[in-house]
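Form 12-C: Joint structure prediction
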Amino acid sequence: MDSTTQSVVFTTQTPYPLPSQKFMIPTTWKRYHLSQLVNKALDLAKPVPFDFLVKGEILRTSISEWCAENGVGEEETLEIEYIESVLPPQRLSEFPHESWVSAVLCELPNHFLTVAYDGYLRAFDMSRNPVLNTLLHTSPITSFCTVPSPSNDNTYTIATASQDLTAQISQISVEASSTSSKPLATLHLHTAPLSSVSSNAKGTQLLTSSWDGLVGLWDTTIPPTDEVPEPTLNERERKRRRKGDDATTKKPKRKAPINVLKSHIGRVSKAAWLNEKEGVSCGFDSTVRTWDVENGLCTRTIAASEKPFLDLVSRENGQSALVVSTDRTMTLYDLRSSQLSAAVASFNHPSTPSCIALPESHTSSSQIVTGSYDGIVRIWDLRSNKAAIATFKAWDGTKKVLAVDWRRGVVGVGGEGGLDLWKVAAESDTGAGSKKSV
Amino acid sequence: MASVKAKKTSSKRKHDEDVAEEQTLHSATALEMLTDDEACGDGDDDLSDGEAVDEFPEIDANSDSDDDEVEAEEADEEDEEDEEDENESEDDEDELLTDDSEHHIFPKPKTIISKITGQPKRVYPEIEPDYDSDSSTEDAPNRVGDVPMHWYDDMPHIGYDMNGKQVLRPAHGDELDKFLATVDNPDSWTTAFDKKQQMEKPLTAEELDIIQRLYAGENPDAQYDPYEPMVEWFTGKGKEEIMPLSAAPEPKRRWVRSKWEKQKIMKIVRAIRQGRIVPNKPKTSSKTQEFYSIWSSEPSSVQPPPLPAPKRALPTNAESYNPPGEYLMTEEEKAEREKLDAEDRERDFVPQKYSALRLVPAYDNFIKERFSRQLDLYLAPRIQRVKLNIDPSSLIPKLPSPSSLRPFPNYRSLRFTHPKGRVRCVSISPDGAWAISGDDDGIVSLWEVNVGCEIKRWKFEGKIGALEWCPRADLSYFVVGIEETIHFVIPPNVDASILALTQSLLAPSTLPPASGTPSAVKWTTPSTSAWSSEKPILSLHLAPSSGVVTQLSWHKRGDYVASVSSGGSQNSVWIHQITRRYSQAPFKKIKGAVQLVLFHPTKPHFFVATQQYVRLYNLAEQKLLKTLMPGIRWISSMDVHPSGDHLIVGGYDRKLCWFDLELSEKPYKVLRYHSRAIRSLSFHPTYPLFASSSDDGSIQVFHARVYNDLMTDPLIVPLKILRGHQITDGLGTLQLRWSPKHPWLASAAADGTVAVWCS
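Section 2 - Result
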């Protein structure tokens, strides 16, 4: 069988293009041989491992086996796309938590932030030391985000969403000498636990989503006085309040929303910004909705059938969105097209996928990371929807993954087992970086 | 004899008919014939030529019989026949006469008395030796001879005359002449041109007659008579052969009596004499014919006729006494044959070769073979057995495929674990977000349905018997049944307005007026200062020794909750009204131990399941409506369809009964799919689904579509068996609850886990 060859044309979107010509390749070759071939052909100074996609499927066997499985004859010319291969993820460190971690943030340059079901916000520095451990809510915190603000290096504004029906804007400082946190304002709108909060790129506005089907739009300015009155207390509470009157003098200001986006029937599981003016949300009513945030109008509704959505990320500057749902699929929706053809691709998971993250926000990267309830984190390439490119198991046993975040080649995995950090080199770190710099 | 006579008469009739025909045909001659007939009637004297006259008297074939009457008949017939014959002869004569006028082939002789001898003698006319006397002298217009006439077709002449001169072709008339001839000459259409004679010749009457006969499809010969009279030569009086035909002496047997016959006859005679043969059988009544209906009686046997015995195979070459060499067995083959059992051998004999048939010995297995053959004929049953040939796949009812009935729960999304104790009950909040589960250790956990993270935990003393969320959407609390108390608990993280409403309902500042009849159930609320989400806001204490609360069942409106206690047979069912803070026992006395109760979703009806029966009461009118008999030995679970018209009942004996309440008191369908006792049944509030859980650890999900049309039966399709729970202490999955808004299922199992199954 050594003599049999297959004619192959290579294509790529990586910064390492090959001249478009036919290669006659022995069919016994596997990924390793092909990768070596490309490296030699390009004469790269530093070898770059590649993965090879044939008709949307990652080549894991030899070419002949793949051809036999897919019924491709030897005479046909195979078009093989190569991508930079994801190196096997390596565990960097783990941070056990007392409670389940519900959200992870790896955005900050020197720190990792987590929020947990016990209501605490925790910060860890690069040397794995817990820097901050502060109670923000008495109920589980479900989601949080940083509010970009022109402030000094180690002080950040954080927005948290909790099951106690409020969101909160707090200021934390994680300086080496002194760490502190100060709640600035509480956001009062929702009548059911909140599911997500997200800030726009400038840090001027927030979107919150809740189980009551509402999406709230807020600005991040801290009002001098309460915008929402204190609830009318009955006698018992008043008595109690009087006792602890001194403690509540420095309590955060109560804020009201700028606008309320009403259209979802049922729980909204995620609301995010597409750009400065548009938002997107998904919910348990199997719809993905885009919003004109300023006017509070639902501009487009993509309705799926029986797909309660759990999480969403937008990519390519808001042109498409990836959603995970309880029917164990991750679906790529084109937000610009009409409803019927909106679903572009579907990726099947063996267990409920709970969270999803892109390497950088709003990029056109084709790699995604998802976490699921079977405790396995999967890295996908959108061009290959048959199987994940790489998988790793965060903790032993079946501990649920509830949050993932992927920044600067580090995947933070939060869930039942606490926080886990894994090193996963995102595709074309160099390429994307260079594009950004340009 | 009669038949012969009939023949005769028929033949006679035919003659008559023929005669009549002839008469009509030749009407001109018929007149003459009539006169002739009359003449014939007078006598036969003037028939000079004497031909065709029957000299013989008619002889009948039956003339040897000696019946007088027959003879008389004969005589009549003879007369008639004579007449006929004469008629015919007359006809012939007539024709002959006409013929004679044309042809004179032979000169007619004259009979004269010889002058010399005095004897009559025939004298022929003198032959004149002229041209007429010989055929060669006949006037032959044809001068050619017997040569084909087409030889002269190109010539102006035809032949030569005596002088060697050419005989010119006689002139022919042209077409006009021919036409005129047809007008003038009436015979012209029967004339034809004779090439030999070179002249027009009319057809003779004889030829015309032949043509007519041919045209009529008759025999062309006018002389031919198909009905010629029979001529008797040797029969009849005076015509018998007297002299023997052969000179051989007559055999002896012609005149000597046969001894053998004598013996035979004597034997019969002797038998008659001895009375062994009754000469004249007494005439029995069988002479008179009996009529009977051949279809009246049943056929003799219902069974089909037995099969014929199998035929023996015909002998082949191997059976021959002198078979060809290839049929003979070698020594090895013989040895091999010896090893086999008698039944397995190819043949039951060894072919052997003998040079002659007389050398063949007697068949040694003769008796044995005959015996086995008789045995086979006698004992082997020959009844054809009809095999039931049913395709098993045709017996399976045609159901839609489960994939077309999505969504339904098909995988386990998550599992919530209670560290110790089996989980007996689970309940999902009406908004579908929260689940509570209670275990035998007294722990009630509140957790998110979608994440499975425990938010809150309550610890009670004793086993948790039942848990139910209040179905009201504007309130948020649940009831927990522990031992003999029922606690009302408000979960945390509730909106302030809902919380206030719930608190005001469960612990109103002004208690409603107590009703007249004091109840055995005490409603207690802790003081407001002691309120916390850790403690129940309201507790009901049932009467002591009333037993563990095993079931709590809400009315759909959320104002009434019914509780069933396991302990005493009396007062085990209570209905608690929340707004009035009042409990009442609906039944003073109830037959059997109550297992379960259910409120009808739309009507004021109340289902009560005892061990074997389900009774349906109307609470408003306080009377029994119906008693359903599921045929289950011990009912374990029950649920009512959201429409209220259908009920499913499960039992510890693995049966699941579907009742259509509109139909009968017997189940519409009984499903028995679980291998162990059924523990819980549940209808989905909105999707057409129901599920059953069992002690075998599995959950079975069914599609149950109910039609508004009363004529259409509900469609029940098994969809999925969900496995994943372990069996602990013989207990499997103990309770099932559906998520109200999604096709998701929560199942509490004895292995201490609660699983959420998603679609």
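Section 3 - Comments
Residues 1-14, 16-102 of chain B have pLDDT under 50 and may be disordered. Residues 307 and 382 of chain B are 5 Å apart (CA to CA).
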